[in-house]
Structure formats: C-alpha cells, structure tokens
Amino acid sequence: MSTRTAITPFVLLVVGGGLLIGAVTAPGPWYEALAKPSFNPPNWIFGPVWTVLYVLIAIAGWRVWQRDRSGAAMKLWGLQLALNFLWSPVFFSLQQVGLALVVIVALLATILAFIAAAWSVDRAAALLFVPYALWVSFATLLNAAILTLN
C-alpha cells in the first residue's frame, strides 16, 4: 500500500467510527431533559462540526504515521482517538456526566500533548489539531456546565 492510499484506513476508522458512535449514542430524552447553559449550541451543529474534525484528525494521524509510526505523537494520536470514542458512551449511554468530564479533560490534555509532540514530526499535523483542541475546550466547558446545572 502506498503512503497516499494509506489515508483511506485512517479516514474510515476515524470518520466511520465517529459516525457509528454518534448514531449508537445519539442524544435522547435523558439529554433533552437536562438543564443546559445558555451557550449550549443547537443539536444540529454537532454532526457537521464533528465530521469536519474527524477528517482533520484522520489526516493528522496519517501524516504522523508516514513520518514516525511508533513515536510519541502516533501513540498520543491513538490515545486521543480512544478517549474521543469513549466520551459519548460514557455521557449519553451511561449518563455519567461527571465521569464524562474526567474523560474529556483527559482527551483535551492528550490533544494538547499530541500537538506538542507532532510539532517536531509534522507541523501541519500539529496545526490540524488546533481546531479540534478549541472545540474540545468548548465541549469541556459545556460538559462541566451541564454537570454543575444538574
């Protein structure tokens, strides 16, 4: 497999996995009944934002994988993906808002660590994670506000 075609498994894993988890753990009546802060965005925004972010995550992972498959940045990329995929089931399926906050704080720390580690491996990959870091920062604040309000 050429390095160019190797992007396909990254996109399938990240975008496909994200869409699958989103479909299986879609917000339902429990989430609708929660008190939410005034800055809570409408539900329809999450799908498009996450789809774009998942594409950026896949490209960043692919770029780092091409340059250093077993390095710290690649390991952090895998860890952030696992934490990302864990958050929705913890929050929506288990309805554990406090535990979800722990997961998302760990996710944010891992994203920032990836950016730092990837900076020396592939700056473009590191920069691709900046919108992700910003969104997860916002999502962390949102998770914390929901926990406080409920």
TrEMBL record:
List UniProt keywords, sorted A-Z.
Membrane, Transmembrane, Transmembrane helix
As for subcellular location, the record says: Membrane
Matching entries from Pfam families are given as: TspO_MBR
Its topology with respect to the membrane? Multi-pass membrane protein
Q: Which residues cross the membrane?
A: 44-64, 76-94, 100-119, 126-149
* Endpoints of the signal sequence: none
Is the Zinc keyword given for this protein? no
> InterPro entries from the xrefs?
TspO/MBR-related_sf, TspO_MBR
Q: Does the keyword Transmembrane apply?
A: yes
What family does the entry list? Belongs to the TspO/BZRP family.
Q: What is this protein called?
A: TspO/MBR family protein
